[in-house]
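## retry 2 of 3
previous attempt timed out at serialization; input unchanged, resubmitting
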Amino acid sequence: SSTAIVITEQPVSVSVPVGYTFTLRCRAKGRTSLQYQWFCQHQSNCQQIPGATQQDLPVTAQQTQLYTCRINDLYKNAVFSDWVKVEVHQCVARGLPPQLWRGEPVIVLNPTEQRVEVGKPLQLQCAAMGVPAPCYQWYRNGNLLEHQKKKKLLITHAKVSDSGTYLCCASNCHGEHWTNAVDIHIGETLPPAEHLQLCHLVFLSATGKIALLVGNNCYQHHPNLMAPIRDVFELRLLLEQLGFQVVSLLD
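## retry succeeded, writing output
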């Protein structure tokens, strides 16, 4: 029976730069001597690794793939270890990880600032290297987000209350590393920039002199004109010298 073999040390997932060399380990106990065989799976193709018949499997990271180890005894009992993921980062900033890297988390992808309409999906991403592979935990405004424990944070229907400052902590047994903090704005549909600019000027300077210039370039029954762009530009300079605040729009 398979209880004849007990795995005492499972291999662990890692997240490493391309070309990095490390060892996957598996240990087991049995009633007879044991034989080990490692397998790898890239995309959906699973194969035995030739010659990989030791407890330790040396790996030089080339591409992201999964590994498992089969252990069998002389009575035809066999068990498989957990599948582990070797995640390989192709482009890592120069100088990372340092020569003395011990496997502590190193952030290689930071989330980016976003504006999202109410009801639309909000997705943030980060990634970190680490041996073992880091665990992730997202925060908003310093508060832990209970269910956001993956590299990707996903909120399928964003609400105004989802606005705030987000960051993620990547941690493993060697320590932790935090991503940059990013501001996320969730709001109603945003008007175009020109519209905002116009409103801004009208409200701020109701007492001042405002000029709205519209240069039309594309006419239905006319070739494209070049002059309107130049005219708007020159007229704008002139009006600004006369103390007007100018909003220039094209087409």
